[in-house]
Each structure stands twice: as structure tokens, then as C-alpha cells.
Amino acid sequence: METNAIFRKNYGSFRRFFSMLGKANLPYLWIVGYLAASAVIANVGVSSTEYSAALFAGNVGLTAVVLPYLFYQILSLILSSVSGLINNLCTARMDRNLRRMVWRKTVSLPLRFYENNNPKELLSRITTDISSISNLVMKVFLPIFTTAYASFVILQKVSSYDGALMWSLVAALPVNILISFILGRLQFGVQDLINRRNAELTATVAERTNNLMLIKSMSAEAKEAAAGGERMKASYRAAGMNIWITGTAIPIRAIASVLQTIVIILVGRGYYASGALSLTEWIAYYGFAIQLTNILSAYCGYWTSFKSAQGAVDRVSEIMAEPSENLNAGSTMESPAGGIRFEKVDFSFGSEPLFQGLDLDIPAGRITAVVGPSGSGKTTLLNLIDRLYPLNGGLIQIGGKDTSDYSLTSFRRALGYVTQESVMYAGTIRDNLLHGLGRTPSDEELDEACAAVGILDYVRRQSLGYDAPVGESGASLSGGQRQRFSVARALLKKPDCLLLDEATAAMDIGGKAGVWASIRQVMAGKTVVYVAHDAQTIRNADYLIVLRDGQVEAAGEREDVMASNSYCREMMENGEEGR
Ligand SMILES: Nc1ncnc2c1ncn2[C@@H]1O[C@H](COP(=O)(O)OP(=O)(O)OP(=O)(O)O)[C@@H](O)[C@H]1O
């Protein structure tokens, strides 16, 4: 999306970029090794050029010229291979470290961040953009030093032949630099466009492959194929522009290089003709001048990478500059026992407020159902209790203490929360049950939790038991089975406060009853808050809260509210009819 905050056009934030690099734990030792190897290569290159000049000037003495020439040639070859290897290793390590850093940041950003930025586009941040940044460091920033040193060594040598010659050579060099600079600016714009188009394509493919079932059930294959095709066409167009610009740049650079060579010859020939240079020096001068041109042309090619990476730098450093959730600030929540109180809570997702001055009491040690029409704010209420979003105003207390006083990590660990989606990851049943648990329970304890939610028989039927894979996002499980494992995972936390968002909605009637009997038993004397949509589930509550448009319409003992509240009565009547 062009309007996406990640893509805001705000280039040039190098302070943020260097602060990001500072945190990335770069492979400094390898970098020093690369710089040292480059310095040695520069000096070896000078010796090698001088011996080759002597050789081609007719000095063919075996020990004085030929053997040293061969020695420096071979040494230069070996050192160039080693330095190339180190450079590639550095780039790979930098990729790894930067990806780790951005990924750590990504998972620690507040949910609010993802309201404004498409999470799927972050895939490209972690893949393509990080590669551009590693390239930028290894192919642009470090070569500033290696190129400068190599140029210095060469110019120093030329000036040892004749100082004026050295300055004439320096004056002749900027032709190539100017051309590369102009081409670099052109390529930057196109490369940035390619990155954005690829990010959009990745986001589309990731989202659609997650929802293949919907696409098939809606017979939307042709429409989705066409929509994906449009994204691919946009990527292709951007790549096509890049190919044209790069294709045009090659002959322009070649012409510039020929012109440069002519200028070099014109500059040096006068010195040779006047006898200021010997034949060997004249050949060496030519070799040095060509080397210098090649070094600077290559560096100006890196400048193109620099311009291309600027967009990536901006996007990634913007993510890194986003404030993370402060997970560890505050006191440690030992046990969220006690009633939950909302005091004048204000909350909104956008400009429209969802809750305004919401006051609400959820009793301790009892089972409370939250009901209400779709969109009335039930899920958000649970999310706010779990502190997944910061409040705009007011406070939420548990047991008389402001929940924001506790560290987020200890607070969320102490609460059990089964969300509406029953999220499962690719992995084994055990991986999913232990996710975020912070301890390794015995198989007996796992059996107990699975028996409580009626899924133990299923586990026993698997030849691998708890080590059976569940497929991508739990694809090999039914909706009801996913919910049972999700509830088991929450029960294994042994929470003093359990939040359930339609956590039994996909289960059969008998299964629901069994799971609720277990929840009542396991959570006896502890606080349970759940969102319910159907008559059967409502019956499991002791206490009932009816939400409507972000307001509490009714709250009290279940029987009282069911008898007095029109929404509940209607719900029960529909529920009875349905059975
Ligand atoms: N991440 C979000 N970004 C923006 N608006 C949101 C977000 N989540 C919920 N909303 C809006 O907040 C309101 C309350 O949503 P919520 O999911 O809490 O309702 P609900 O009562 O749980 O609904 P349902 O019974 O359908 O699950 C809705 O208008 C919804 O559109």
C-alpha cells in the first residue's frame, strides 16, 4: 500500500540507520579481517603492477623480475579469493544478525503497530530489505575505506614518478564518477519501486495461501488468480524498467571508460615524450591509471547499490525506531486472584471510541459470561484485561491493584487466555501444548489436561502420541480439536484467572458440556471470564454481563440477568428453539 506507514517517503535518516547497525551485533572481527586483507591487496597490487611494467618494458631477468612478478601475481590471486570469501561470510553473518534483530523487534511491537501496517509486508522487510542493507554495509560503506586506501597507495606511487603527473591523473578521473552518480540516481528510484512491488506481491500471496479454503468454497480461483496476476504484472513492469535502465547504463559506462583511457594516455604521453618517465614507468603509469579508473568505477557502481538500498534502510530503521512493548517494567504479578474492575476506561481503535468511561465489575472466584451483539466490544474487553492494547484513559484493577503496575511478561504469564482463533503452529501436539509455558510438564500432566478437555483419546490414537505433527497452523485438526488443545494449553498454565473467547464454539454439544464441567472443576474458586454467543454456553456462567455498543447494558447473577434482559431472553428463546 502506498499509504502504508512503513513506506512513508522520508529518506536520509542515517542517524537511525547507524543506531540500528550499532544494535545489530555486526561481525566486527571478520570486518577487520576484510579491511586488513584489502590493505595488503592494495600494496601487493602496486608491486605486481611495477614488476609487470618492468617485464613488458623488456626486463626479463628471472630472479630480478620474472619470479617476483609471478610471486605477486599468485599472492594477489590468493588474497583476492580470501578477501572475497571473507566479504561473503561477513554479508551472510550480517544478514543473519540483522534478521534476528528485526525479528526480535517485530514480535515485541505492540498490536497497535499492526493496526496501521500490514503484518504480511514485514516478510519483505526481513528478507529483501535486510539483504539490501547487508550489501550496503559490505559493498558501499566498507569499500569507502578500501577504495580510498587503494587509491592513496596508487597515487602515492605515481607521484613518486612525477608529482605533476599524479595531479593531472586526479583531474582526469571525475568523468566516470559523474556518469555513475547520474545512473545511480535513476536506478535508485526503480529499485525502490521493485522492492515495494515485491513486498505487495509477498503480502498478497501470503494472505491468499492462508485462505485457500475460502477461495475454493467461494469459487474465487479465477478472480484470485487474476488479482495475483495483476500484482505480478506490476512487479514485472518495475523489473522491466530496471532492466532497461541497467541495459542503457552498460554501454554508457563502456563509452565513459574508453574516453577515460584516451584522456589517461593523452595526459601521460607528454611526460614520456619529454623523458620525465622511463619506459617502465610509462607502462606502470598506464597500469596504475587503468586500475584507478576501475576501482573508482566499481565504487561508483556501489554508489548505485547505496541509492538502491536507501528505501530499504528507511523502512527497516523505521521499524527499529518504533517503541516496543516494555515487557519487564513493573512489579511481578504472582497471582491474578481477586475481582476485575474497569474504572472509567476509555478505549478506541481509531477515531471512533469503543469504550467511553466504562465502569465494570467482574467478581472474583466465579465464572462470568460476557454476551452482547456482534461488535459490541466483548473480545476487546478480554484483550484489555490481558493488556494487549494500552488504555486511552481510566484503569483496570485485579484484586484492587492497577494491572498496569505489573510487568507485561509476568502479568500475561499469570493469566490464561484462549483467543477466538485457537491458534496452532506447525509442529507437534507437544510443541503446541508447551508453547509459552516456560516449563516442561510430565506426560502424566499433559494427559490430565487433555483428558479435562476430552482430547486424550485422540492423542492416544496417534502412533506418535504427543509427538504427532499437527500440520501447518494445525491444519490436520478439526476446529473443535484445535479449540480443545487451546483450552488444554491454557489450563496447563494453572492460571488464577482464565479468559476464554468463544473457546468452545466449534465443539459438539456433548463435548462442550464435558469441557465446561472440567473448567468448573479445575478453576474452582478462581476467576473465569468468557465470551459466549449461544444459550448452552451461557448456562455455564454464575454471573452475566451484557455489552451493547461498548456500554454495560446489564450485569448481575445469571438467573436475574437472563430473566430481566431482553437480549438474553431472546438469545435463550432462539437457543431453545434451535435444540
Ligand atoms: N484490530 C482492530 N482494529 C480496528 N477495529 C477493531 C479491531 N478489533 C475490533 N475492532 C472494532 O471494535 C469493535 C468491537 O470489536 P470486538 O471484536 O470487541 O466485538 P465483539 O463483541 O467481540 O464481536 P463478535 O461477537 O463479533 O466477536 C468492532 O466495531 C470492531 O470492528
From TrEMBL:
UniProt domain ABC transporter: residue ranges: 340-574
GO cellular component annotations of the record: plasma membrane
Protein's cellular compartments: Cell membrane
ABC transmembrane type-1 domain boundaries: 69-308
One of the Pfam families matching this protein, by short name: ABC_tran
MF term (GO), any: ABC-type oligopeptide transporter activity
Protein name: ABC transporter ATP-binding protein
Species, as recorded: Acutalibacter muris
